[in-house]
TrEMBL record:
HAMAP family tied to this protein: Endoribonucl_YbeY
UniProt entry tagged with the keyword Flavoprotein: no
A GO BP annotation: rRNA processing
NCBIfam families in the cross-refs: rRNA maturation RNase YbeY
The protein, known as: Endoribonuclease YbeY
Function field: Single strand-specific metallo-endoribonuclease involved in late-stage 70S ribosome quality control and in maturation of the 3' terminus of the 16S rRNA.
Pfam family, one: YbeY
Keywords per UniProt: Cytoplasm, Endonuclease, Hydrolase, Metal-binding, Nuclease, Ribosome biogenesis, rRNA processing, Zinc
Protein source organism: Oceanicoccus sagamiensis
Location in or out of the cell: Cytoplasm
Length: 163
């Protein structure tokens, strides 16, 4: 699948995945969301940032003055403009690393989950209510499984039970 990902790296992080792998994760999300058959090449921007930048964006756009792992900003184009712009993802490398360690996950697998999760948000999926969460999580699980990555929600539940 052909995808155009504009990768903006605002920080250097040793755990940050290579661009080709990020594109593979986006493709997995698009495939599971049945967006892979479009005649146009989907485009999105992924910006990898530090905790200060993600906190500022989270405060300014979501009114939550704290760090977060990923923020999604779907493209808001007028109806008469037919472009395959999905929008922008902003991912905080330090938060992804911290969560992976805290949840006993492989860092690369957690990166994949965050990219897929954010891409699904750009496609309009959400997890505000239980029904929406079940649909979105199901797509995430399928996309991750297509990459031979375990269900991240089972791992969270297992870790909670084992603690």
């Amino acid at each position: 699948m052909n995808i155009s990902v504009d990768l903006q790296i605002a920080i250097e992080d040793e755990d940050q995945p290579p661009p080709a792998q990020i594109q593979q994760w986006v493709a997995a999300a698009l495939t599971e969301a049945q967006q892979a058959n479009s005649q146009q090449t989907p485009e999105l921007t992924i910006r990898i940032v530090d905790e200060a930048e993600i906190t500022t964006l989270n405060r300014d756009y979501r009114h939550k003055d704290k760090t977060t792992n990923v923020l999604s900003f779907p493209a808001d184009l007028p109806d008469h403009i037919d472009l395959p712009l999905l929008g922008d993802l902003v991912i905080c490398a330090a938060v992804v690393r911290h969560e992976a360690i805290e949840q006993h996950k492989n860092i690369n697998d957690h990166w994949a989950h965050m990219v897929i999760h954010g891409t699904l948000h750009l496609l309009g999926y959400d997890h505000i209510d239980d029904d929406e969460a079940e649909i979105m999580e199901g797509l995430e699980i399928k996309a991750l499984a297509s990459l031979q990555i375990a269900n991240p929600y089972l791992e969270i539940n297992n870790n909670a039970v084992n603690l």
